[in-house]
Amino acid sequence: MTEFLFVIVSVAFFSYGGYMAAGKSRRRKLFFQAWYGFHVRFLEEVSYRRRPLGECLLQGFAPFDKLLRQEPFRPPHYLTAEEAAELNEYLAEIGTTDAATQRKYLEAKSQSLQNLRDKSQAEYRQKKDLGLRLGSLLGLAVAILMI
């Protein structure tokens, strides 16, 4: 009975460790989801409602609006250099021109942001699955060796 319990605990422990190993990918996925959500909302605001940027930030795109509010601005550490450069360009561009130019810029950025979001989601799924499988296998191996 104790051997069976040990097997269950070791598999669960190492599976959880494998899941946690995908943490960077999970943060990237959440960040790009929030960025794309903010982008869609801001495009809607520029096109129709025309409220100030501060009111748009109150809508709750957690990782992204927290990033915008920090002083001094630093891109998250889990972004690549190209993604950080794209984020800097995006943030430097929003709210600086008239509504028509702003809408054209945001519509042009929509596809690239959607691609970043989709790529980060696929990467997270892949790394999470790999971590869970390897963690489970390692847990079983440790259990077998200990028994």
DSSP strand tally: 0
Spans where pLDDT lies below 50 across 5 or more residues: none
* Overall body shape: elongated
How would you state the average pLDDT, rounded? 81
Please indicate the count of domains.
Answer: 1
Radius of gyration based on Cα positions:
21 Å
Quaternary organisation:
single chain
Which structural category fits the helices and strands?
mainly alpha
Separation, N- and C-terminal Cα atoms: 12 Å
What is the count of helical runs? 6
Order of helices and strands: HHHHHH
Sheet having the most strands: none
The percent of residues in helical segments reads: over 70%
How large a portion of the residues is in β-strands, by DSSP E?
Answer: under 5%
In short:
By secondary structure, this protein is an all-alpha fold. Helices cover 82% and strands 0% of the residues.
Description of the molecule:
- The protein is mainly α and 147 residues long.
- It has one domain (2-146).
- It contains six helices and no strands.
- Helix 1 packs antiparallel against helix 6, helix 2 crosses helix 4 (62-69) and helix 2 (23-49) runs antiparallel to helix 6.
- The termini are close together.
- The mean pLDDT is 81.
